[in-house]
Amino acid sequence: MFRLTLQKDSNVSYHEQLYQQIAASIRSGELSPHEQLPTVRELAAQLKINYNTVRSVYLRLQQEGMVDSRQGRGTIVSNVVNDPLMTRNPAHLALLAKETLHKIKAMGYSLDEFSRVLSAVVQEVNQFPVLFLRYTELELAEYLRLVQYHLPSAMVEGRTFEDFTERLEEDPSFLQEYKAIVTHPSASMKMRQIMPREAPPVVSLDFIPDPTTVIPAMEAYPRHTKVGLICATIRGAEGMIQDLHNAGINHLELRIIEANHPDVFDMIANCDVVYISKPGYMTRPHLLTLPKVKEYQEIPDYHGITKLRKIVTQ
Protein backbone atom coordinates (compact mmCIF):
# COMPACT_ATOMS: atom_id res chain seq x y z
CA MET A 1 0.00 0.00 0.00
CA PHE A 2 1.29 3.49 -0.84
CA ARG A 3 2.28 5.58 2.15
CA LEU A 4 0.19 8.49 3.35
CA THR A 5 1.11 10.82 6.19
CA LEU A 6 -0.89 13.68 7.69
CA GLN A 7 0.66 16.56 9.60
CA LYS A 8 -1.47 17.43 12.63
CA ASP A 9 0.30 20.75 13.21
CA SER A 10 -0.18 21.90 9.61
CA ASN A 11 -2.40 24.84 8.67
CA VAL A 12 -3.65 22.75 5.76
CA SER A 13 -6.75 20.67 6.50
CA TYR A 14 -6.64 16.86 6.55
CA HIS A 15 -8.95 16.84 3.55
CA GLU A 16 -6.53 18.89 1.44
CA GLN A 17 -3.44 17.00 2.64
CA LEU A 18 -5.00 13.65 1.81
CA TYR A 19 -6.33 14.82 -1.54
CA GLN A 20 -2.98 16.24 -2.64
CA GLN A 21 -1.07 13.09 -1.70
CA ILE A 22 -3.43 10.67 -3.46
CA ALA A 23 -3.73 12.92 -6.52
CA ALA A 24 0.07 13.23 -6.75
CA SER A 25 0.46 9.45 -6.48
CA ILE A 26 -2.02 8.98 -9.32
CA ARG A 27 -0.41 11.60 -11.56
CA SER A 28 3.11 10.30 -10.93
CA GLY A 29 2.14 6.71 -11.71
CA GLU A 30 2.89 5.47 -8.20
CA LEU A 31 -0.74 4.39 -8.22
CA SER A 32 -1.36 2.49 -11.44
CA PRO A 33 -4.57 2.54 -13.50
CA HIS A 34 -7.18 0.12 -12.13
CA GLU A 35 -5.27 -0.20 -8.83
CA GLN A 36 -7.58 -0.72 -5.87
CA LEU A 37 -7.62 1.95 -3.18
CA PRO A 38 -8.39 1.15 0.47
CA THR A 39 -12.04 1.43 1.43
CA VAL A 40 -13.14 4.64 3.10
CA ARG A 41 -13.37 2.94 6.49
CA GLU A 42 -9.99 1.20 6.09
CA LEU A 43 -8.19 4.43 5.20
CA ALA A 44 -9.95 6.40 7.94
CA ALA A 45 -8.89 3.76 10.49
CA GLN A 46 -5.33 3.67 9.13
CA LEU A 47 -4.90 7.46 9.35
CA LYS A 48 -7.08 7.84 12.46
CA ILE A 49 -9.23 10.54 10.90
CA ASN A 50 -12.93 11.10 10.33
CA TYR A 51 -14.65 8.67 7.96
CA ASN A 52 -16.36 11.62 6.24
CA THR A 53 -13.00 13.29 5.51
CA VAL A 54 -11.89 10.28 3.48
CA ARG A 55 -15.29 9.98 1.84
CA SER A 56 -15.24 13.62 0.72
CA VAL A 57 -11.70 13.21 -0.69
CA TYR A 58 -12.72 10.12 -2.66
CA LEU A 59 -15.75 11.98 -3.99
CA ARG A 60 -13.57 14.91 -5.07
CA LEU A 61 -11.13 12.55 -6.84
CA GLN A 62 -14.05 10.85 -8.56
CA GLN A 63 -15.51 14.16 -9.71
CA GLU A 64 -12.12 15.07 -11.18
CA GLY A 65 -11.92 11.76 -13.02
CA MET A 66 -8.95 10.37 -11.10
CA VAL A 67 -10.78 7.44 -9.50
CA ASP A 68 -13.79 5.35 -10.31
CA SER A 69 -16.15 4.13 -7.57
CA ARG A 70 -18.71 1.46 -8.33
CA GLN A 71 -20.96 -0.77 -6.26
CA GLY A 72 -19.22 -4.05 -5.56
CA ARG A 73 -15.86 -2.87 -6.93
CA GLY A 74 -14.85 -0.26 -4.39
CA THR A 75 -12.66 2.64 -5.50
CA ILE A 76 -10.04 2.10 -8.20
CA VAL A 77 -7.63 4.40 -10.01
CA SER A 78 -9.00 5.41 -13.40
CA ASN A 79 -6.95 5.43 -16.57
CA VAL A 80 -5.93 9.08 -16.27
CA VAL A 81 -2.17 8.40 -16.11
CA ASN A 82 -2.27 7.55 -19.79
CA ASP A 83 -3.63 11.01 -20.55
CA PRO A 84 -0.71 13.47 -20.89
CA LEU A 85 -2.94 16.37 -19.82
CA MET A 86 -3.43 14.71 -16.42
CA THR A 87 0.25 14.04 -15.68
CA ARG A 88 2.41 16.47 -13.75
CA ASN A 89 3.99 18.66 -16.41
CA PRO A 90 4.85 22.37 -16.04
CA ALA A 91 4.19 23.01 -19.73
CA HIS A 92 0.70 21.59 -19.51
CA LEU A 93 0.07 23.59 -16.34
CA ALA A 94 1.16 26.80 -18.10
CA LEU A 95 -1.15 25.98 -21.00
CA LEU A 96 -4.04 25.40 -18.60
CA ALA A 97 -3.32 28.73 -16.89
CA LYS A 98 -3.29 30.60 -20.22
CA GLU A 99 -6.56 28.99 -21.33
CA THR A 100 -8.16 29.97 -18.02
CA LEU A 101 -6.99 33.58 -18.29
CA HIS A 102 -8.30 33.85 -21.85
CA LYS A 103 -11.71 32.62 -20.65
CA ILE A 104 -11.68 35.10 -17.78
CA LYS A 105 -10.96 38.00 -20.13
CA ALA A 106 -13.60 36.82 -22.62
CA MET A 107 -16.19 36.94 -19.83
CA GLY A 108 -15.32 40.56 -19.11
CA TYR A 109 -13.41 40.12 -15.86
CA SER A 110 -10.08 41.82 -15.15
CA LEU A 111 -6.99 39.94 -14.00
CA ASP A 112 -7.12 41.82 -10.68
CA GLU A 113 -10.68 40.58 -10.09
CA PHE A 114 -9.66 37.02 -10.92
CA SER A 115 -6.60 37.23 -8.64
CA ARG A 116 -8.72 38.37 -5.69
CA VAL A 117 -11.26 35.59 -6.23
CA LEU A 118 -8.53 32.99 -6.71
CA SER A 119 -6.86 34.05 -3.48
CA ALA A 120 -10.15 33.71 -1.59
CA VAL A 121 -10.87 30.29 -3.12
CA VAL A 122 -7.39 28.98 -2.23
CA GLN A 123 -7.93 30.17 1.33
CA GLU A 124 -11.27 28.38 1.49
CA VAL A 125 -9.83 25.14 0.12
CA ASN A 126 -7.05 25.13 2.73
CA GLN A 127 -9.22 26.07 5.69
CA PHE A 128 -10.09 23.76 8.52
CA PRO A 129 -13.55 22.22 8.19
CA VAL A 130 -16.37 22.50 10.69
CA LEU A 131 -17.78 19.33 12.26
CA PHE A 132 -21.55 18.94 12.15
CA LEU A 133 -23.20 16.63 14.70
CA ARG A 134 -26.64 15.04 14.54
CA TYR A 135 -28.37 12.06 16.10
CA THR A 136 -28.79 9.82 13.05
CA GLU A 137 -27.15 9.25 9.65
CA LEU A 138 -30.40 10.34 7.97
CA GLU A 139 -30.38 13.66 9.80
CA LEU A 140 -26.73 14.13 8.88
CA ALA A 141 -27.39 13.50 5.18
CA GLU A 142 -30.18 16.08 4.99
CA TYR A 143 -28.91 18.79 7.31
CA LEU A 144 -25.34 18.68 5.99
CA ARG A 145 -26.83 19.44 2.59
CA LEU A 146 -28.78 22.39 4.01
CA VAL A 147 -25.75 23.82 5.80
CA GLN A 148 -23.62 23.52 2.66
CA TYR A 149 -26.36 25.21 0.61
CA HIS A 150 -26.64 28.17 2.98
CA LEU A 151 -22.91 28.36 3.68
CA PRO A 152 -21.18 27.30 0.43
CA SER A 153 -17.79 28.72 1.47
CA ALA A 154 -17.50 26.27 4.40
CA MET A 155 -16.02 22.81 4.37
CA VAL A 156 -18.43 20.72 6.43
CA GLU A 157 -17.99 17.18 7.75
CA GLY A 158 -20.46 15.17 9.78
CA ARG A 159 -20.64 12.61 12.59
CA THR A 160 -23.42 11.17 14.70
CA PHE A 161 -23.33 12.07 18.39
CA GLU A 162 -22.58 8.44 19.24
CA ASP A 163 -19.64 8.28 16.84
CA PHE A 164 -18.38 11.65 18.08
CA THR A 165 -18.38 10.74 21.78
CA GLU A 166 -16.62 7.42 21.08
CA ARG A 167 -13.94 9.20 19.06
CA LEU A 168 -13.59 11.86 21.75
CA GLU A 169 -12.93 9.21 24.39
CA GLU A 170 -10.30 7.53 22.20
CA ASP A 171 -8.36 10.62 21.14
CA PRO A 172 -9.52 14.16 22.03
CA SER A 173 -6.74 15.62 19.87
CA PHE A 174 -8.81 14.92 16.73
CA LEU A 175 -10.78 18.07 17.58
CA GLN A 176 -7.79 20.11 16.42
CA GLU A 177 -8.80 19.25 12.85
CA TYR A 178 -11.88 21.48 13.08
CA LYS A 179 -12.67 25.16 13.23
CA ALA A 180 -16.00 24.69 15.04
CA ILE A 181 -18.33 21.99 16.34
CA VAL A 182 -21.92 22.50 15.18
CA THR A 183 -24.60 20.79 17.22
CA HIS A 184 -28.31 20.79 17.97
CA PRO A 185 -29.29 23.26 20.72
CA SER A 186 -30.53 20.41 22.92
CA ALA A 187 -27.01 18.92 22.97
CA SER A 188 -24.92 22.10 23.15
CA MET A 189 -24.53 22.15 26.92
CA LYS A 190 -23.52 18.50 27.06
CA MET A 191 -20.99 18.96 24.25
CA ARG A 192 -19.36 21.89 26.06
CA GLN A 193 -19.13 19.83 29.25
CA ILE A 194 -17.45 16.78 27.72
CA MET A 195 -14.99 18.59 25.44
CA PRO A 196 -11.54 19.72 26.59
CA ARG A 197 -10.87 23.40 27.29
CA GLU A 198 -8.75 23.86 24.14
CA ALA A 199 -11.51 22.48 21.88
CA PRO A 200 -12.92 24.59 19.05
CA PRO A 201 -16.06 26.66 19.73
CA VAL A 202 -19.45 24.95 19.90
CA VAL A 203 -22.14 26.50 17.70
CA SER A 204 -25.83 25.75 18.33
CA LEU A 205 -27.65 25.42 15.03
CA ASP A 206 -31.31 24.52 14.79
CA PHE A 207 -33.45 24.04 11.69
CA ILE A 208 -36.80 25.78 11.68
CA PRO A 209 -39.94 25.54 9.53
CA ASP A 210 -39.52 27.55 6.35
CA PRO A 211 -41.24 30.90 7.09
CA THR A 212 -42.08 31.37 3.39
CA THR A 213 -43.88 28.03 2.90
CA VAL A 214 -44.65 25.94 5.98
CA ILE A 215 -45.58 28.69 8.45
CA PRO A 216 -48.02 30.57 6.14
CA ALA A 217 -49.73 27.27 5.30
CA MET A 218 -50.05 26.36 8.98
CA GLU A 219 -51.39 29.81 9.87
CA ALA A 220 -54.07 29.48 7.18
CA TYR A 221 -55.54 26.24 8.51
CA PRO A 222 -58.74 26.69 10.59
CA ARG A 223 -58.64 26.22 14.34
CA HIS A 224 -58.52 22.57 15.47
CA THR A 225 -57.38 21.30 12.06
CA LYS A 226 -55.80 17.88 12.61
CA VAL A 227 -52.22 18.11 11.38
CA GLY A 228 -49.97 15.06 11.39
CA LEU A 229 -46.19 15.38 11.68
CA ILE A 230 -43.93 12.53 10.53
CA CYS A 231 -40.20 12.30 11.12
CA ALA A 232 -37.60 9.52 11.11
CA THR A 233 -37.58 9.48 14.92
CA ILE A 234 -40.07 10.44 17.59
CA ARG A 235 -37.51 12.91 18.95
CA GLY A 236 -37.44 14.61 15.56
CA ALA A 237 -41.23 14.78 15.43
CA GLU A 238 -41.36 16.29 18.92
CA GLY A 239 -38.85 18.88 17.70
CA MET A 240 -41.20 19.73 14.83
CA ILE A 241 -43.99 20.47 17.34
CA GLN A 242 -41.68 22.64 19.45
CA ASP A 243 -40.56 24.61 16.39
CA LEU A 244 -44.16 25.25 15.33
CA HIS A 245 -45.09 26.42 18.81
CA ASN A 246 -42.07 28.73 18.82
CA ALA A 247 -43.36 30.17 15.54
CA GLY A 248 -46.72 30.92 17.16
CA ILE A 249 -48.66 27.97 15.70
CA ASN A 250 -50.89 27.01 18.64
CA HIS A 251 -54.36 26.70 17.11
CA LEU A 252 -53.94 23.27 15.49
CA GLU A 253 -54.29 19.71 16.77
CA LEU A 254 -50.79 18.37 16.15
CA ARG A 255 -50.14 14.64 16.08
CA ILE A 256 -46.76 12.97 15.69
CA ILE A 257 -45.46 9.57 14.62
CA GLU A 258 -42.29 7.91 13.35
CA ALA A 259 -42.11 7.16 9.64
CA ASN A 260 -41.56 3.44 10.28
CA HIS A 261 -44.31 3.10 12.88
CA PRO A 262 -46.89 0.44 11.90
CA ASP A 263 -49.75 2.90 12.58
CA VAL A 264 -48.44 5.63 10.28
CA PHE A 265 -51.13 5.04 7.64
CA ASP A 266 -53.88 5.13 10.28
CA MET A 267 -52.60 8.48 11.51
CA ILE A 268 -52.53 9.85 7.96
CA ALA A 269 -56.12 8.68 7.42
CA ASN A 270 -57.27 10.38 10.63
CA CYS A 271 -55.63 13.75 9.90
CA ASP A 272 -56.78 16.58 7.66
CA VAL A 273 -53.24 17.23 6.41
CA VAL A 274 -49.85 15.66 7.11
CA TYR A 275 -46.31 17.06 6.91
CA ILE A 276 -43.25 14.83 6.63
CA SER A 277 -39.67 15.93 7.27
CA LYS A 278 -36.84 15.14 4.88
CA PRO A 279 -35.36 12.47 7.21
CA GLY A 280 -38.88 11.05 7.43
CA TYR A 281 -39.38 10.56 3.73
CA MET A 282 -35.79 9.42 3.31
CA THR A 283 -36.90 6.60 5.60
CA ARG A 284 -40.13 5.91 3.66
CA PRO A 285 -40.05 7.83 0.36
CA HIS A 286 -43.47 6.66 -0.85
CA LEU A 287 -45.25 8.49 1.99
CA LEU A 288 -44.70 11.79 0.22
CA THR A 289 -46.67 10.52 -2.78
CA LEU A 290 -49.88 10.23 -0.73
CA PRO A 291 -52.47 12.97 -1.41
CA LYS A 292 -52.60 14.35 2.14
CA VAL A 293 -48.85 14.40 2.72
CA LYS A 294 -46.73 17.52 2.17
CA GLU A 295 -43.02 18.22 2.60
CA TYR A 296 -42.02 19.91 5.85
CA GLN A 297 -39.41 22.30 4.50
CA GLU A 298 -36.78 23.66 6.89
CA ILE A 299 -34.02 26.27 6.89
CA PRO A 300 -31.16 26.99 9.36
CA ASP A 301 -32.08 29.46 12.09
CA TYR A 302 -30.69 32.94 11.46
CA HIS A 303 -28.66 33.35 14.66
CA GLY A 304 -26.95 29.95 14.39
CA ILE A 305 -26.00 30.23 10.73
CA THR A 306 -24.81 33.84 11.21
CA LYS A 307 -22.52 32.84 14.09
CA LEU A 308 -21.17 29.93 12.08
CA ARG A 309 -20.55 32.17 9.07
CA LYS A 310 -18.48 34.56 11.22
CA ILE A 311 -16.33 31.70 12.51
CA VAL A 312 -15.78 30.26 9.06
CA THR A 313 -14.74 33.59 7.54
CA GLN A 314 -12.32 34.54 10.33
TrEMBL record:
The record lists the organism as: Brevibacillus panacihumi W25
Q: Name one GO molecular function term.
A: DNA-binding transcription factor activity
CDD domains for the chain: WHTH_GntR
Question: Which superkingdom?
Answer: Bacteria
**Entry keyword Amino-acid biosynthesis:** no
Q: What are the entry keywords?
A: DNA-binding, Transcription, Transcription regulation
Protein's recorded name = Transcriptional regulator
Q: Name one Pfam family in it.
A: GntR
Q: Where is the HTH gntR-type domain?
A: 12-80
